[in-house]
Amino acid sequence: MLDLTSLRRRPACSLSFLGVVLAMFSACATKPPPAPATPATAGQPVTEYDMDPIKITAVKGPEGVHIESFDAAELFEAAGAALSDKRYDDAIAAYDRLLKEFADSRYTKAALYNVGLAYQGKKDWAGAVARFKVLSDHYGETADAKDAQFQLGATYAEMENWTASAEVFALILQRKDLTADDKMEALGRRGFAQFKLKDLDGAERTFKSAVAFFEQIAVQERLQTDFYLGLCKYHLGEIPHERFRAAPLRLPEKQMRVDMDEKARLLLFAQRMYIDAIKMGNPQWASASGYQVASLYEEFYDAFMHAPVPPELLGAGNEEKREIYFDELRKNIRILLEKSLRWNEQNLLMMERLGVQNEWRDKTKLAYAKVQRLLDPSAPMDAPPDPTAAAPGPVATPPPLPQPPGPRPDVVPDPTGADQPGGDQAPQAPGDGRPKPPVQGPARQIL
Predict the structure, then answer these.
(1) Cβ neighbours of residue 355 under 8 Å, at least 6 residues apart?
(2) How far is CA 341 from the centre of its chain?
(3) Exposure letters 196-220 (e unless 16+ CB within 10 A, then b)
(4) d(CA 273, CA 362)
(5) 201 with 235: CB under 8 angstroms?
């Protein structure tokens, strides 16, 4: 907050205009000095007004020299309009001019933050990192710097610099001014960075600490968004899922039985964690979790089909024996495909009921059709299940799902202190092959 009693207007001139000013003073040098204050006003207190500095420059154009004046507020308003219109280069130019001409104005922190957003809009991640670092390093204890640190960690994630991202969020967690939502976001994003670094043990500890923190505050405080809690619970399923994928099936038969038991244990543990994420009630994370449970059973089927064949069935003269072996194997593990089909079906019904339209829905449709073909290669590919039709008998019944939660709030602070509502971004799951989880949480913006 500016001290309106101590700051005065600080006009600034360019060198080209200085000569004009000096000439004016010279012309007026013979005028008498102003009369002293009258006794009626001399003893009255003087009121001082705080005004933003104004820059005045002489600009040479096609029609000659003309005088141009501007202040920080005008530049900030013009830059904000350009940023809102996604004219990122114009926004960057205006914010940079503001920061150069009015380096110590009340708009400095907001301008540094917003120019970082403009670089993000251009996907110039290095430019965004540089601006957010300046704000974070020079104004470290302020709320604006805290938001800049969150953006810095998120920008490193966009660059897939997971080490730097994890380090930034570890530093954020040391701050004393974090709200409950801040702490959940920092824990979720740090855990996600550790997960991408394949530090599954570290990521698991971070996600578990986030869930424990939520359970600790749940009675006294309500989170504004459940997005990062959902991210944590979903990845507490992804971690044993990754371990399940890595678990081998090996010969001899005795080792194969041990490996099968371990793989089955990891499957059931991952399934339980995904079910916890579904029960939370966030439609986006629930649809992602339902898809992954169905994938667990299909992947277990594939692992059996690609497991080492007993050595007595190898060789050119054992084709018939191998064919019988695989026929019997398919019959014995058919239940895995049936469970996968059931979970895909239930996931589609859930998404239809909740109105979810995302890539998890599209991937679930494809997976449903694929499993149908594996169960009966001669059958035509069916359409997705009718949500109004009665569901078939239970194979692996998903837990009941709550209604979708309301939209996540997002506040866009104004540099003068007034707040206004901002937009919200629904999490997406951009995919190449297996869809990726939604990691774009509620936006932090200053406009």
Answers:
(1) 283, 404
(2) 31
(3) beebbebbbebbebbbebbeeeeee
(4) 23
(5) no
Name the token pair of 353.
Answer: 């009921």
Collapse the DSSP code of 385 into the 3-class scheme (helix H, G, I; strand E, B; otherwise coil) and give the result. Answer: coil
CB 363 within 8 A of CB 351: no
Residue at 200: amino acid letter: L
Q: What kind and span of H or E run contains 211?
A: helix 200-217
Nearest to 188 by CA among 138, 238, 145: 238
Per run of 10 residues, the mean pLDDT along the chain (length 447 residues) is 33 36 40 52 62 64 64 92 97 95 92 97 98 96 95 97 98 97 98 98 98 96 95 98 98 96 98 97 96 98 96 92 95 97 97 94 96 82 43 34 29 39 32 43 51
Q: What are phi and psi of 379, to 5 degrees?
A: -80, 145
Q: Are 447 and 412 in contact (CB under 8 A)?
A: yes
| Tokens 């007004």 found at | 49
Q: Output the six-digit token pair for 19.
A: 């000569």
In one-letter notation, the amino acid at residue 368 is: Y
Rounded-to-integer distance, Cα 112 and Cα 411, Å:
18
Sign (positive/negative) of CA torsion 284, 289, 295, 299?
Answer: positive
Structure-token match 């869809």, residue found: 435
Q: Give the burial class of 65: count Cβ atoms within 10 A of its Cβ; 0-12 exposed, 13-18 middle, 19 or more buried.
A: exposed
Q: Which residues contact 180 (CB under 8 A, 6 or more apart)?
A: 213, 217, 221, 223
pLDDT recorded at residue 287: 97
